[in-house]
Write a structure and sequence with these properties.
This protein is α/β, with parallel strands linked by helices. The chain has 13 helices and 15 strands. Helices cover about 40% and strands about 15% of the residues. The structure holds nicotinamide-adenine-dinucleotide (NAD).
């Protein structure tokens, strides 16, 4: 490994849209540790006061501007001060986008357009980094070169509103910033997890957090589709490290990169690992959730080459750290989650899309 490229970030102003979210707050810490000056823009729509406090942010955070990415005045002011922009703001769950597509369009399409047009016109921004998602791969196109592995250049197969909105954001980034001759990188994180992650109502994803919290409450761990789905779980600190590198790595210019570990883990494996900490936890099969990709792990060759970096935390170690966090932070378990039953969970997964 060559020396870290962090010197380029010393004193640099990095705007993180969605900066008060799960990834945004971890990224803020990593950037500050690298000598950068992070600035957060967030409308605080995703979380209530307790999760925000646990993420180390909230209305009194001096680095935070409370505002919407569709508010052109605010976006222009913050982008004008920025050397780099990380676009993490999103209506960020599959279920949330399916049941409220209007908000998905407003945030993931119109909001992304607002940020991109401002960056395209800005003089100082050195690189724009988009947080897309591995959901763009869907089940994986049948003619993909390798089964069980998603490679950046393979045909994409987005299965839901969220994945489609992110794929649109990728194309819009290439198109607008390509025409403007601005530097950018597109990142496709796989399943990110770790301390600070608090599930959102109705979402079937974020299984490390969900299984741990349900097990801690003595509730069943529901495996939709038998937990056969494969995921690539990447620990929150590794994602933050990868994004920091993607801001300055010369070879990241214009690239699309998977961010994963390259290790496939089934959802059942996660439940079983969580049960090691909670031996009485009951693992139960449940119906398949519509539009839930079968998944695969990331082909990480390009990520490792371009960023000259590899993830440090294995999934077993990461789950152990998450369990420890929930045990020492019981108020992380939201009241709505405490009130759920297995039946109410299955019913909410099956909620029809709003018209
Ligand atoms: N967590 C994962 O596993 C994962 C995986 C792949 C991709 N991603 C992507 O990474 C990014 C960050 O994800 P996260 O897990 O931190 O999600 P998050 O929901 O915790 O953070 C997103 C933040 O965006 C903010 N936001 C939403 N709409 C906004 C708007 N109109 N204006 C300003 N702020 C707004 C929310 O309040 C929230 O704080 C998202 O774009 C997400 O799609 C996440």
């Amino acid at each position: 490994m060559t020396p870290s490229p962090h010197d380029d970030l010393t004193g640099a102003r990095v705007l993180i849209t969605g900066g008060a979210g799960f990834i945004g707050t971890v990224l803020r810490s990593a950037l500050a540790a690298a000598g950068a000056r992070p600035a957060l823009l967030d409308n605080l729509s995703a979380y209530g006061p307790t999760p925000l406090t646990l993420l180390g942010t909230g209305p009194s955070d001096p680095d935070l501007t409370i505002g919407d990415i569709n508010d052109q005045t605010v976006v222009e002011r913050l982008v004008a001060e920025a050397d780099y922009v990380v676009h993490a703001a999103a209506h960020s769950t599959v279920q949330g986008c399916t049941t409220d597509p209007a908000t998905a369009v407003r945030t993931n399409l119109a909001g992304t357009d607002s940020v991109l047009r401002t960056v395209a016109a800005a003089r100082h921004v050195r690189r724009f980094v988009l947080l897309s998602t591995a959901q763009v791969y869907g089940h994986g196109a049948p003619q993909a070169p390798r089964t069980g592995v998603f490679t950046e250049d393979q045909q994409l197969d987005p299965l839901n509103v969220y994945a489609n909105s992110k794929l649109w954001a990728e194309g819009h980034t290439r198109q607008l910033l390509g025409v403007a001759e601005k530097d950018f990188a597109i990142l496709r994180p796989f399943s990110v997890y770790g301390p600070g992650q608090v599930p959102k109502p109705g979402a079937a994803s974020w299984v490390v957090a969900q299984f741990t919290m349900y097990a801690a409450l003595g509730q069943q761990l529901l495996l939709n589709n038998g937990g056969r789905q494969l995921r690539d779980f990447i620990f929150r600190d590794d994602i933050a490290a990868a994004v920091v590198r993607a801001l300055t790595a010369p070879k990241a210019a214009g690239q699309t990169l998977n961010l994963g570990t390259g290790t496939p883990t089934s959802v059942r494996d996660v439940a079983e690992h969580v049960r090691r900490h909670f031996p009485s936890a009951d693992i139960v099969d449940a119906p398949q959730v519509a539009q839930d990709p079968l998944g695969a792990c990331a082909d990480t060759a390009r990520m490792r080459d371009v960023l000259n970096w590899s993830p440090a935390v294995s999934v077993g170690e990461g789950i152990d750290r998450y369990v420890q966090w929930v045990r020492t932070t019981p108020n992380a378990i939201p009241d709505w989650l405490r009130a759920e039953t297995s039946t109410s969970r299955i019913t909410s997964w099956g909620a029809p899309a709003a018209l």
